[in-house]
Predict the structure.
Amino acid sequence: MKTIIFPSPNGVILSCDEKQVVAVTDKTGQKKLKSFKKKNKVIFWHFPFVRGLQYFFCGLALFFSSLIASFDLAFGMAKVKDLKKYYTKKIVMLILVVALGIGASELLLGFVPNQIGYLLVDYRGDRMLRNLVILACKVIVFYVILLCLRFLHGVLDMFRFNRAAELDLQKKGVPKDTKKGAFTNWMKMWWLGEMGCSNFCNYLIFVFLSDIIVITLIGGGFGIFFNLLFHIAVFLLSTMICFEILSVVENVRFLSPLKWLTSCLVYEKPTRTHFETVSIAKQEMSMLQKGREFMEDENKKSFSVVLTEVKNKLAVAGVTDKSDAEWIIATVLGKNRAEIKLVPFVSDKQYEDIMKATERRAKGESVDNIFGFTEFYGLRFDVNKKVLTPRMETELLVEQVLKAQKNFKNCTILDLGTGSGAIAIAVAKNCDAKVTAIDVSKMALAVAEQNAKKNDVKIEFLHSNLFQDLKRKRRFDIIVSNPPYIPSSEIEKLDKNVRECDPLLALDGGEDGLDFYREIISKAGKRLNSNGMIFFEVGKGQAGDVRKLLKESGFEEIKTTKDYNKIERIVSGKYR
C-alpha cells in the first residue's frame, strides 16, 4: 500500500499499512512528532475498483481521526483535565459541521442550480440542454465554495501542507513514457496496486465532482426511493472509478497535468516550514518501515525532528555535504550513521550538544575539527588544525599499497608526509610490513604518534624534510605519499572549511601543484629496493603530469586508478 497524505491546518499525517505518523508545527514554530500503530487492514488492495471503495471509507475515517490527532499534538492534551468531555465536544462539533455542510450543499448545489436551470430552460425545453445548464451552475458553485474555504482560518495552511507532502512523495519516479514496454509496465503496476492514488484531499474532490456530473446529466424521475438508491449507487461507483483514474493520472507522466482540474482546489504554494514538517513525517515513516520502535511520547525530542532541524540549519548556511547532519548526531550519540536511524528520540542534553555542534559547522568549521577526530579506513584518528584531515579517496591509496606489499617478503614501507599518520597506521594495522613515517612538522608527528598508540600499531616516526635527514643507505620496498598538490594560486579559492581548518603546509604544492612530486620522484630511485614501487595520490588533472615525471625518472609499469567520482586519483610505478 502506498503512503497516503492527510494534511491538517497545523501539520501533516502520513499513513502506510498499520503505521501512522503525525508531524505538526505549533503556534511557537516548534516541530512536534508522534508515531503509532493504527488498525488499518488492507483487504482488497490488489482488486481493481473494489479497492477504491475501501480507500474512500477507510481513508475518511483515518482523515478525521488524523485531524483530531494533529490538533492534540499541536496544542498539547496534557493540559486538558477531562479528556472524555473534551472529545465529546469535538465529536458533537464535528457532527454539527457535517450536518451544516450537507444542508448548505443541498441548498447551493441542489435547489439553487435546479431553479436556475428551469428558469433558463423551462419544462417544455430540451431536457439535456436544461441538465447541462444545471450542471454548469453546480460546477461553478462547487468551485466557488471550495475557493471561499481558503478564507477560513487554517484551511490555507492545510492546503500548503497538502501540496508540500504531494511534492515530496512525487520524488519517487515512475516508468518513463518513452521507455520500451512502458504500457505493459503501467498495466502491471496498476493491477498490483503499485500505482495508487496518494493524495486523499484531491481524491475526495474528484469523487464529489464526478458524482455531481453523472447525477446531473442522467437526472432523476425514478421516484424518491429509487432516486435515493440511484444516487447511492452512482456515488459508490464514483469512489471506485475515480480511484483508478487518479492512480493512472498521478503516475503516468504525460497525463499528470489533468489532475490539476481538481487538485488546484486543494493546493497552495508551501513555505519552508511546510516542507520541513513533511520531511520530518517522511523521515519518521521511513524509519518505522525499517523496524524502529514507535515514537508515542510527543514530549520527547524525536530523532526525525532533530535530524530535519540540523539539515535545514546547515542548508541555510550553505553546507552542501548532506552527510554532515548525520555525522554530527552520530558523534554526539556515540553511534555510527546506520545505528542512529534506529534511535527514536534524543535527550535534552544530547539535543543541546547537537545544536552547539551544528552552529559551529554552519559557521564553516569542519565536523572533524569540531569533535577533534575522524574515521578513516575503519579506524579513528585524532585531528586538529596542525594536520590535514584524511579524505575518503585516500583510502584507495591505502588499498593499492596493501595489495602491492603482498609481493614482497618482509616488506618495508615509507610514508612521506604522514600528517595525522592515517596512511601509515591504516597500512600497518592491516599487514605485517615494517612501516616508517616521515614528516617535516614536529606537531604533526606528535599527533601521528598519538594516533598510532590509540590504534595499537608500531610505526617508526622520523622528523625529516622528505628524504633529507634519512640515512643514506636506508631503502624501502614501497614509498607512498599524499603530498600537497594544490597550486598556490588556487589556495584562496578553496572551500572555507578546508582553507581555515587544514594547515597551509599540507595544501600548497607550488605554482603548478607539482613541486613535491618532482622532489620525491627525482630522489625516490635511490631509496627503493630492486623492483620497488611508489604510490601517489594526485589532484584532479595532475595524473598525466605525474606519469610523465615517473617515466622520465626511469619508472616502469606506470598505472593510474580512478576514485569514486571517476577522477584519476592514484598513480603508481615500479623502479628496476
Notes: The two ends are 65 Å apart (CA to CA). Confidence is low (pLDDT under 50) at residues 172-180. Residues 83-120 form the longest helix (38 residues). The longest strand covers residues 528-537.
